[in-house]
Amino acid sequence: MLRRRASEGSITTRNWVGAALLFAASASAFPIARWGDSALVLLVVPAAIAGYRAGRRMTSLAVAVITIAATLLLALPASLLLPGGAPLGDWIVTLVIAVLVVVGPWWGGRYRLLRAEQRERDAAALASRAQAAERARIADDLHDTLGHELALIAVQAGSLELDAALDERQRARFSELRGAAVRASEQLRDVVDLTRVEATRSLEPTERELADIVARSRQAGMSVQAIGLESDDVPPPPFVRDLLVRALREGLTNAAKHAPGAPVHVAVGEESQGWVLRVTNQPPLDPDAAPGDGSGHGIPSLRQRATSVGGSVDASRTPEGGFALIVRVPRTPAPPDAPAHEAELQSSAAQARRRILQSAMVPGALAGLVLVAFLVVQAVTVAQTALPSGVYDDIELGASRGDLAGVLPAGVPSPPPVVDEPAAPAGAECEYFAARDGWLHFTEATYRLCFADGELVEKLELGGT
């Protein structure tokens, strides 16, 4: 709990520090836009660094968006209140500088932050999966080896318990031994249930030959009839031998638990599609004897192993009341399924892509805002300052200012500094209009109309080509 609170406190601190850096970087965009021809233009370097560091620190996208938006919105009234400039034009330039100098580096820093978080999640998922796989291997090994050995001990102790050559005291000892083996098997089942997760590959079996397992079972007192166990009859691929060994051991263990003393028939053969192992046991010799409790783990685990290589497992009761285990293995193993942790990694990658796209919406939204603001400013500028060429051509010298009031816009105070202007006629007052025919008509040309005593005495295009 303390560690979680400390982690939450660290994230909050990082967000606040990042917000402060982002505010300082965004706030510098307006002075650069307004007085960019001075030494203030050097602020672009620390602003870009602050934006990048903010992106690397801040985990909250919402805090970053609010900080940038609030700062840029405050720049609009500031541009309106400060005299000596073009308010809307300064604000548009502020947005452009913010996108290029602040938001761009911020997005780069955030991209690296999200990728680093994805690598941490992937590493944690892989580590967790490795631990789970190790527990699965231990569970499989416990069940396949110790469970089999304990079943053989119980069978052999049960056989000695019924030996008439032993006295009552010795038979009681063997009865205790059989009970201890059964209890140990039950405790092993509990341990397997605790450690078992979705199966991966487990440890290698102790016996490498089918005949060895049958021989040991016979030595323990089981009645086992076997066909086709010679090494030459079993195909050489390791995955086939491994699966058949595990299947035989599972079948004999189940027969010893659930049908003690019953004859068991084992057969290994080749089919058109691969190989098949059959382990069939007769009903228990004592119908009133309670069958041993199984863990319910062996057959599902075996079926999962067989399915992973394209095989199958059929476990069912026979019409006579016994039990049959049939395992089929193909000649060529099927491609293994994608590991379970692949889904976790794919989910982590999808989450990272989603968060990166969400972060990319910030510069995209600002770019859209710049475009909208530019179009608005263009519309207002054309409406208030531009005089279309057709209207200009229709204006004749000698026209009165009152007659032209309905066709002339407000105009501009003076022509652009790059336009050379001749001296105005003596005693005349001149007005200036942008020589533009639409929003997308960009030119420095300016129309000059000079009036004397309320009549137009000169019309001139300045800076025209």
Main sheet: which strands, in order across? 1-2-3-5-4
Uncertain spans: 1-6, 197-207, 290-295
Largest sheet: 5 strands, mixed
What is the molecular shape? Answer: rod-shaped
Mean pLDDT: 78
Helix content: 55-70%
Our estimate of the beta-strand percent is 5-15%
Number of helices: 12
Q: Please state the structural category.
A: alpha+beta
The first-to-last residue Cα distance is 76 Å
Tally of distinct domains: 3
List how many beta strands DSSP finds: 8
Describe the structure.
With about 475 residues, the chain is of the alpha+beta class. The chain has three domains: about 1-125 and about 345-380; about 200-340, Histidine kinase-like ATPase, C-terminal domain (Heat Shock Protein 90), CATH 3.30.565.10; about 385-460, Beta-lactamase Inhibitory Protein, Chain:B, domain 1 (2-Layer Sandwich). The chain is about 60% helix and about 10% strand. It is built from twelve helices and eight strands. The chain has helices at about 1-25, 30-35, 45-55, 60-80, 85-160, 170-195, 210-220, 240-260, 300-310, 340-385, 390-395, 400-405, and strands at about 225, 265-270, 275-280, 310-315, 325-330, 430-435, 445-450, 455-460. The strands form two sheets. The protein has a five-stranded mixed sheet. The protein has a three-stranded antiparallel sheet with strand order 6-7-8, with no helix packed on it. Helix 4 packs antiparallel against helix 5 and helix 8 packs antiparallel against helix 9 (about 300-310). The radius of gyration is 44 Å and the shape is rod-shaped.
